Amino acid sequence: GSEMAGEETSNRKTYFRGEEEEGFEPGESDGRMTATTFYEPVAWFTDRSRAAHYTLLHLQIVTGRTHQIRFHCSQIGHCLVGDCHYGAPQSDRSWAQRMCLHSYQTKFMEPFSASWYEAVSPLPKDLGDLMSGLLLHRVQENCPVFLSRRKHLPLQSIFKVYDANSQLLQTHDAPLNAAAILEAAQQRQMDHGNGKWWSEQQS
């Protein structure tokens, strides 16, 4: 998904892995489950007074733990705008009026046919309006263009309006190397299954 985190971050791509119980933070339960999140900054903003800095993030979760994105962003010191439970100031709710989190794309395999599905949900109007009210300072080089439900002129280097006649749900066969991908993912999980919180810079 594409998220707006509450402070500026310049890491190109970072991989986070942790062990957490669903619905719990580390230390709250003896039960632990692995959670993996990738993130990449897309664009950098400030508010009109230039006092507050914000980063639009593109995140990919490999696992699906409760509050995973919210918790991982908080752990790296960049909580989501409006997410007061995980560290955002209460004042965010006076201008954002919601948590700035949107599930842009979901990919999954249908187990009976082994077909892969990909669903896209363009950026909703309220989040586009919210970002349009900020000052855009920089966009990541070679950033992909994402789909939006409405036109937002200040964001045209990041978002384009989707074609209402286009398919937002698509299906395709599994990749030829699907077995190798799954095996590599399982091996990584075994190699790092007992790790604590850590991050690794990706080139």
Q: What class do helices, strands and sheet pairing give?
A: alpha+beta
Low-confidence sequence ranges: 5-15, 19-30, 193-203
Strand content: 25-35%
Distance from N terminus to C terminus (CA atoms, Å) equals 21 Å
Mean pLDDT: 79
Summary of the model, kept short:
By secondary structure, this protein is of the alpha+beta class. The protein has helices at 68-75, 92-95, 125-132, 178-192, and strands at residues 2-5, 14-20, 33-46, 53-61, 101-102, 105-110, 115-120, 135-139, 146-148, 159-161, 169-172, 198-201.
Notes on the protein architecture:
The protein has 203 residues and is of the alpha+beta class. Helix content is 17%, strand content 33%. It is built from four helices and twelve strands, in the order ββββααβββαββββαβ. The chain has helices spanning 68-75, 92-95, 125-132, 178-192, and strands at residues 2-5, 14-20, 33-46, 53-61, 101-102, 105-110, 115-120, 135-139, 146-148, 159-161, 169-172, 198-201. The strands form three sheets. Strands 1, 2, 3, 4, 5, 8 and 12 form a seven-stranded antiparallel β-sheet that branches. The longest helix is centred in the C-terminal third of the chain and has 15 residues, at 178-192.
Topology:
Elements: E1 2-5, E2 14-20, E3 33-46, E4 53-61, H1 68-75, H2 92-95, E5 101-102, E6 105-110, E7 115-120, H3 125-132, E8 135-139, E9 146-148, E10 159-161, E11 169-172, H4 178-192, E12 198-201
Parallel strand pairs: 9-10
Antiparallel strand pairs: 1-4, 1-5, 2-3, 2-12, 3-4, 3-8, 6-7, 7-11
